Structures are given as structure tokens and as C-alpha cells.
Amino acid sequence: MRRIVVVSVIAAATQMGGWCAPAQAQSVTLYGIVDTGVEYLHNANPAGQALVRMPALTGEVPARWGLTGSEPLGDGYRAIFTLENGFTVGTGLQGQGGRLFGRQALVGLDGPLGALTLGRQYSMLLWANYSADFIGPNIYGINSFDTWLAAPRSDNTVVYRKSFNGLNVGATYSFGRDASPTGGSNTPGEGTCAGSIPGNSAACREWSTLLQYQANNWGVATAYDRQNGGPGSAVNLFNGLTPLPMTDSGNRDSRFLVGANLKFEKFLFGAVWIDRRVEVDSHATPSITSNQFALEGEYKITPSLLFDGFAQRIVNSQQDTRANMEMTRVTYLLSVRTAVYAQVAFMQNSHHAAYSVSAAGGTPAKGMNQAAAMVGMRQSF
Fold it and tell me: What is the domain count for the chain?
């Protein structure tokens, strides 16, 4: 990260005389990650054909750059902001449907009573999952079963967070969760849901809550996120079946997450359970419940060499889709900011399922298994 200190002086005059406010130091940090590689995907389409590509979505982590800053206001309070852009390394195109600051765009206040921010921000699902899912937004991760889990963010959102003595609490409320530009959306296959509709305040609303405790060597967390339906919205189970319309404000798509982590010498373990419930209030389509389980492990062989992996399973009884997935990865740090990595992953679909092993896409035929491998490099600044 690169930090820039800006000194500003505010002056004003009135009819009674002039005054000059004292200079205030504002800290602004420029940061970013550039990450890409080459991927091989077996059974990349229903015909069973293979694919070699430079993924557009992510490697170990999605590429981004951003600005974040703060200004002290006195009495322990400070003004804060973050502007973060996502982009594709292979093409240079902007991510998140072509948004300039599609990853984050927020401003607010932070102080003794907690932080209150406004803008495009993350759901509490991300913070609950952060320490337990250390594989993170990897191209082969828990997001292979549910793309939303890699980056659960919403437009038009008010967020409150507070931390004290290892305990973290938080909540979000969005007035309209997805006002994406044409051709883009927060989550592939789920349409848009801009909200703020006169006479229908419930349409496209979203809210989430967080309760988390993190000690030195262990931690637990739980979060709940609920999205309302609205014009343009759909719900995608990412199992190869057609997304369901979710255009009524009474429709619901909710996720309840429980995560835990444990650190033991050079080992790190994580466990995640996500219960997802989709209620579209249709006689033809009953409510759908999926349960996703993941176990993760990490071993630091040397300070520069890291080995990790995970296994996960998802069960969707109503649509009769199930799958298992395994991934293993090795990362070598060339420096504090630069790393190279190699990883392989495998997906086993049930007879009616067509989950993709890669978060970058590539849907097989129903019942078809997949294998994938990627080598890449990332550099942070």
C-alpha cells in the first residue's frame, strides 16, 4: 500500500470577522492487487469439451485497486471513505458490470460508538465468513456452489459495525440492492433489482446481521442475509437449472451462515455451514432449501511456502441436486508482495446437478464431473 498525507486548511469569513480552522491531516492510501494465470477446465460444456483460458473473474483473489482514507474530527471520531475498482487483468476491462467503483464505494463516520457508513458495501456474510473461509474468493472455493458468497455486496446500503474485546457486531440495510448497468449485475444469472419504488418499499430490499467472536487462536461467527424480490430480479441456485423469477417483493432469498476457525502452531482449520432458503411463493415451484458444508485446512511449510485445501458438499433436496468438491493449492511467496501459485480442483455432480468447479464459469452437462487446474501469479501494492 502507498500512503499519501494530505494537509487541508479551511477558511471562512463572516460579516463579524474572519476565522481560519486549524490544519487537519488526512491520510489517503492507494492499494491494489493484480492476479491472473492460466486455467485448464475439463468438461467445460455439456458436450464434454475442454477449455484453456486466462480467467476473467479471479485467480487466488480478484484483481482490484482502490483508495481509502480518513480524517480525524476530534473526540475519537474520524471521517472515512473507500473507493474500490475491480478489473480483469487479461483484458483490462472493468468488473462488476462495468462499474468504476463496483467493489466498494462508501463514506461515513467511525468512532467510540462504532462505524456508520453509506454506499455500495459488503453484506455481513462476508465478515462472518472471513476468518473461517481462508481459501476466500479463490477461483475454486465455496463460491463454486454459490457465486454470491465470493462477494456479497449491495448498492444503496447503510452499514453499522462495532468491535470490542474480540466481539464484533454489525448490520446492513439496503434500499435497493442491485442498480447495475445494462448487461451487468451483482451476481451472474440473478438479474437486477434497483428498488426504491414508490408505493412498494419492500421491493429489492436487503438486510443482514453479524455476531462474531475472535480470540488469538480460535473464533466463531454467524450471519444472516435476506434479499427481497422485485422487478428484474431472479434467483439462481448455480446448479445448472434455470434461475427462478423473483419479481414480487414478497419473494425471499435468505442465507444463514455459521463459521469457525482454529489455529494450532503451523496449522489453520476452518469450517463453514450455509443454510439457504428460497421462497418464491409459486404453486408450481415450492420453497427450496440448500445446505452447504465446507472443511478447510492450511499448513505453512516455511514462511514462504503455504499449502492449503478444502472439501465441500451441497445438498438441494427439492431440485434433487447434490455435489461434492475438493481443492488443493500451493502458494510460494517470492517477496512480501509477490507470489506464484498452482492449484487443482475436482467436482462430482449428482445425476440432476450441473455445478461448475470453476467460479469463472463453464457449466457441464447434468451428472457430468469436472476437473480443473490453474497456475498463476499475484502482486499487491
Answer: 1
